[in-house]
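Troubleshooting log. The previous structure file for this entry was overwritten by mistake, so regenerating from the original sequence record. Sequence copied from the archived sheet and checked twice against the printout by T.R.
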Amino acid sequence: MTTPAMTTPDTMPSAETTLVAYKSDPVRGAVWHEIFSREAPDLRLVDWAPEGEAADARFLVAWTPPDDLPRAMPRLEALFCIGAGIDHLPVAALPPAVQVVRMVDPNLTASMVEYVVMAVLALHRDMPFYRSEQAAGRWTPRPVRPAATRRVGIMGLGVLGQAAARAVAGFGFPVRGWSATPKSLDGIETFAGDAALGDFLAGTDILVCLLPLTPATRGLLDRRLFDRLPEGAGLVNSGRGGHVVEADLLAALETGRLGAAILDVLDREPPSADHPLLSHPRVMVTPHVASATQPEGAARQVIAGVRAHLRGEPIPHAIDRRQGY
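Regenerated output below.
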């Protein structure tokens, strides 16, 4: 006699299978389908298609949702963003009852921290300069400076910014952080609001941008901001390409106002082959790879969030839409 497999309330199939629509990379999607099939028999993951059954789904996982989402998915109850940032989502255009959920993945945070640490160390140790010298066949050593002499400023003190600040401080850099609203972080000098921005910038030798892209932050990294940094400061942007006024960045590099920049994002992606930042001798560009959601952890977060909602409980990491984030 065969003993039936044990089930738990979280894995027991329900009388009605709940549809979850997936609209993202199909290669990663294969992992999502495997995890949903194995770990969530009460939920059914379906790939998005305009005329398919996904249009009737109550939940959507996406980076870029369908156009006119209320019309495309009239039964939608929650939109799970597949990445950490949600500034690109049409939150204001969604019906008030639709919840918007951030992706909070420890692996995503860890990979962003790795990138920021790598970029800060690369600027500190003059890697853009040495890369250019190597290409020209020159051997030009520069003095090695202690980390304690280079002040790192991080703009954006959310989950990613706070983790990056702690990691960078661990190398001996004096670290300061700036955010729109006050934050407190042990061992990190913090600044908040427009009134404190000038003081923050004046004491920053390597500036790291991890801000969300909003109407207030679009174009924030411009000539006026660069002029408030110490001469020869370095820039790391792994936030959004729209933060940077690229013509102003190029001008600041040419005058020496900025010494070098490491960019993971550009205003238009992918850029044209002749984009001036791609060939600039003091700029390193990576193709938007600083951080990526791991499909296994992300799928399990969505499963847990959907089940919480179906039980009438709050969805973890749902944003407060009244505050706009």
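The first helix runs from residue 26 to 39. Archived copy saved in two places this time.
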